[in-house]
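Forwarding the complex inputs:
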Amino acid sequence: MKILIVEDETKTGDYLKQGLSEAGFIVDVSRNGLDGLHLALAEAYDLLILDVMLPGMDGWQLLHTLRKAGRDMPVIFLTARDQIGDRVKGLELGADDYLIKPFSFAELLARVRTLLRRGKTTETTILVAADLEMDLLKRKVTRAGERIDLTAKEFVLLELLLRRQGEVLPRSLIASQVWDMNFDSDTNVIEVAVRRLRAKVDDGFTPRLIRTVRGMGYVLDVPETE
Amino acid sequence: MVWRRSITLRLTLLFALASTTVLVAVGSIVGFVMENHFEQMDIAEQLGKLQLIRHALGKVTTAEDLSKLPQQLDDALIGHPGLSVTVVGSDKTIVYTSKETHFPDILLNNAATEISARQKPVVWQQNNHEYSGIAMSVPTSLHAAPLFTVAIALDIQHRRQFMQVFQDTLWIIFGFGIAFSAFLGWIAAHQGLSPVRHIALVAKSISATQLNDRLPLDSVPSELLDLAESFNGMLARLEASFQRLTDFSSDLAHELRAPVNNLMTQSQVALSKTRSSDEYRDVLASNLEEYDRLAKMISDMLFLAKADHGLMVPQHDTINLVTEIQQLIEFYEPLSEESGLTMTVRGAGITTGDRLMIRRALSNLLSNALRHTERGGEIVATVNEINIGEVRVSIENPGTDIAPNHIAHLFDRFFRVDPARLHSGEGVGLGLAITRSIIEAHRGSISVVSQNGVTCFEINLPSAESGSRK
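Prediction (whole assembly, two chains):
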């Protein structure tokens, strides 16, 4: 998967490149709007990450030109301005998502993956991780053959973690996907919800599947055994 | 330079104008009265002589008598140097004339048979002298020409000169009087306006550091009391907002210091010797938590700044408040179950507004209630239409009463009832401030009542049924 980052802030650009490369993407960085546009038109990128304020040509113009040229790859905007006017403008021009600086890298990574996965979800009815099984049709969860009773929201939370195995999911993404709460709650409600789910899914079983990545979020993965 | 209309100048001019009007009127009346008086006196003198001559003429019966008349008249006129007399017969022969005075025909030809004190004298000029004369027909007992015309003229030059001098003097005195009253007017205006200058002086002395200065109201005249009171009111409002702003900046600095301090100390300690990668990872993760705090604080501050500048433009979604609260209760279920609380919502109500913002406001109130409710308590949210076009959401939780002196500051930025709870995971103390901003941006209001162990937040919002729906 190839990603183009157009960002004039050197440090931000470098860290985004490093982070996304380490997450398994092929990443190019462009430092100004015009170079970015040329690259975007010349090469086949799967996704674009655009800063709004850019030298040469701003993010809006770049997107506009790109869409007129018939390129429809997903685009994520990074903006320091969190005004509703910007949001409306960006979405009207055909941006797929936007993040307000300062944003967390985990959040960006999660959104990149969401966008790249869009329309490609395989119609699986059973999700598996080690000896944990989730049957989406029967709404049934078992661990080592033992049935686990979950509340409706716990089920949705576990489904999210299972579908995105190995990805660190930030709290804000979980709040948004599971409860449709698109703002930061000033409570530790996600932490408590995950802890309760983990008690049901992991307590008494090995390996432990749901992990907390400190400062980033939560991940469900099967630990590699030697 | 801009021409400013000076009140002192205006008052001075008004004083001068008023005194001029009065003095001119008085001067004119005095002049007229004096002139009239002199005229009356002259007429009286002339009339007296006329009577005398008439009497003398009355005794003339023969031509011999007539020839004696001039002598008689000369005697009668002794001591009256200003008087000239002529006696003319009906055949225009001059019987007597006292001096070289020429009497005009208009006087002689219009001699009256009877003369009263109100008779208007004829006035004429001769040899730079001004004369005022009256004439009368006097019958005698003479056979030949019994009717004589007697004319008496008075030299009024002295009177004229006196009046001239008198008037000139009067005008000079008046001129000084006007100038003096203008000066007095200026002093009066200047003195009268001194309270205004005092207000200006106080206003001048006020800077940001001494907003607590007030005008002393007991020394202000009643006309300026309103002005002074509004001025003091303005100062009080300024002082209050300035105080809030100052508090806010120092609070902000304080709030930023804590996480930055943590970051610095942690990083310095970590770098002071070589550590395992796990330890480094731990430090980075811990730093990340502080950065999160900072980022959240920054975005909350931006949100509030935007609200302060009226830049928050809520969308117009139709929002079912009960459904929203229901979803939030579901969201907070893990927390409420952990704390052994129940959360319920009842009633019905619909408003229009920005769904995300309203949700955030309600969420802040619910999480606030969650934090302050004891185990086993019940949080109740009630939605109902209290008036036409107004819907009320009240969120009630049992808990320790909030002290009355804290209630007033509850919605202030960075305000915490218990300053020790700085790091207990309850955000940065902007939640309720943000809630109020959101509600106010939706033309609503928020208040709180805390008594008898129950704390109740009340939000009033325009109802969607009131026609505010788009």
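The interface with chain A takes residues 282, 284-289, 291-292, 295-296, 298-299, 302-303, 306, 311, 313, 315, 327-328, 330-335, 337-338, 356, 359-360, 363-364, 367, 370-371, 425-428, 431 of chain B (CB under 8 Å).
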